[in-house]
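Note to self: keep these together.
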Amino acid sequence: MTMKNRYCVLIGIAMLALHTAPVIAQEPKAPAASSETPAVSDTPSKIETALSPTQTPSEYLDNRSTPETLIKSYYNAINRQEYARAYSYYLPESPPQPFPQFQAGYENTKSVTVQFGKVEGEGAAGSAYWSQPIAVKSEEKDGSIKVFYGCYRLKLANPAIQGVPFVPLSLIDGTLQKSEKSMEESVPEGCEAP
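Structure:
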């Protein structure tokens, strides 16, 4: 075998090793445990996320693109017990209450499921406003279930004219009332104009 042929064979072996090394180096993925994996539904009208002390937190979701995705992100933070992140979705000048009381309000919450109604929006004076009808099913740590209904109001100041710090789409406020109906039957048909 000539020197040139040996060189070609060595190059071929090296290239083969480079192409197969990532495959060989990968560890096989463990199958997902169906009863211990948080259930997440990313449908346009509903999101479900459950968390127990022995489970891995649900996938991190932080999306302020639309009123619905912002509210999904808000409840994702609640379900992951990331209360400071949930609190940050409110406009800085309109927090729902002081943070310690906000966090304490969820101390008995195990998981939250959300269902959305049809959002209404309007623009005014360089800002856009939305009202998002919602129903919430809360599973408490003692196993009890509570259903609430109401509306969230949201605001986005025109991004093209904002300064620093930039304020993304945010919650202005939310009003929820206890419902005696199922979550699906509790979604309001609409909200007052934003």
